[in-house]
Specification:
With about 575 residues, the protein is mainly alpha-helical. The protein is built from 23 helices and five strands. The longest helix is centred in the middle third of the chain and has 35 residues. Pfam families: UBA, ubiquitin.
Length: about 575
Amino acid sequence: MSSPSMAKLKVAGTWAGVLQVEPENWTVLMLREEIAKRSNMGTESINLIFAGKVLKDCTGEEKNSLSQLGIKNNSKILACLVSVEEGKTLKNELLADDERNRRLARIKAAVTALSKRHADGALPIEDFDIELEDQSGKKVHFSETDRQAIMTGLMLHTSGKRFIRKQMFSDALEVLTMGEEAFSLCNPKSIELVDNIPILQIDMVWCYFMLQDIAWLSVAGLRLEKAREGLERAHGKDSSRFRLLQAGCSSELALYLRLELLEGVVAYHSGQFDKSRKFLTSAQAKFFQLQVPDEALSVVMSIGFGEQDAKRALRMSNQDVQSAVNFLVLEREKREQKREDDICRRKEIKEQKRYGVTPLKKAVDLQKLAELVSIGFEKELAAEALRKNENGTEEALDDLTNPEVNTELQRAIESRKRKRQQRATDATVEQLVSMGFERSRVIGAVQAGGSLEQVMHQLLTHPRADTVAVADDTSNAHDFSGNNNASTDLNANDNACAPDSNPTNPAVENLSPGTLGIDNSNEGPSAEQRDLEMEDEIADELTRSDALSDYNIDVTQEGDAINEYLALLDSGGGNGKASSSQLPH
């Protein structure tokens, strides 16, 4: 008699018999390997079928046990021989699934890391900030919890739209679902006037439609209801608030066209044919309204704008040439202003990194710093006072005007300068030693100063005796033991870094960690393990989008689908069973 944790499986096919397993601990792969061994075959040569379905090996981080798949005592398993080609196909499918799951996990991890690092007031590792703006380009502020959730949701939504453009609708649906989960963590009051969530719902239903999956019919209907309610809250009745913000432009037409098409499709497959015709007819009217006349397009392009930009502007301006030109000029001005703002912000981030972070890992507030400097305090000292006091102006003033505390601030700054110089020099030595140079020669060359190229040239061309002599002459200046142990005696203020100064050692000035690509984790934000490739993909996608990107839809596919469903209604095909939610692919 088997123990309670054991189960007997009845196997037929390439091998017949009873197999004892532990359903809670065994996976499909383990079962396949055991049956393949008893069948004297390779693992890839057999398929396992249970309850009419082919069992697939778990992929990625999945650990589905047999019990989770419904396999229990006395379950029947059929082992079938597969052809070599079929086995290769199955293996390729599993590898593709594994790769897909890994990529989705990377996207989620990268987005989560970015949203945490770019929390309000935090000092990012990168030279850019991710900030939340409204449709007019103004920065919007939320609580830290809501900000992180919204930022995560927006980045996942952006990644999902990238998959939609690539026609990878299953992947898009996975990422959009993650985005929906992120938005659900926000306070509903904080986001009730934000239209990103309704647009995400529409994008999810568009994926259902393009995947031709009617199984999602009831869910699609609920999502579209939420989307329409959300858009009305955000845009106002008949988009009145939205058009006021957009100076009368009809930028939202394409989005509402897609919404009405999908509402018509859901109504059609639900047997509500009159309702379906109403939605589809309205969508068709918007489709005709969005068609760009060749003459208007030619006029706008003759002024110097590209075809895609001209089409976009005309669609969003009711085909009015002057309004389209004004729109494009304004967009160009916004881009120029954004570029200037980005350059300014990068400079600010660089400066903030010199001052380090507060005990709660926030950046020094440059506006408050400017206020202190304007009343006569030395900038470096004022920055340290703000850093120490979590950007509290009053507390910083108290410290700056207290002679004893002021002296302590100066000592802390000088101490960190020395430690930063020592860390930079130690890192330089280690970097050069790792290239294969002898440590004593490296120490001498670094002590002699000069740029990285000059030090490398000295190490490669000067006789060994010269560099050793230099090392001997300067050995008393610093301790170059080669052990980068500066962090072992860091004090409580070492989560900050001092502003730039003129180092006493020219090697420190010219051979900084930044020059050699070394990240000094003791200065500014911590350098945790990062997926740089995925983070760069997400950041690049964010820079490509603007406040109206969600409304810039090429409605060609929508137009074809509208005609298809109206034809079905006209032909009397409205029996509610049509499965032709197909679009030309």
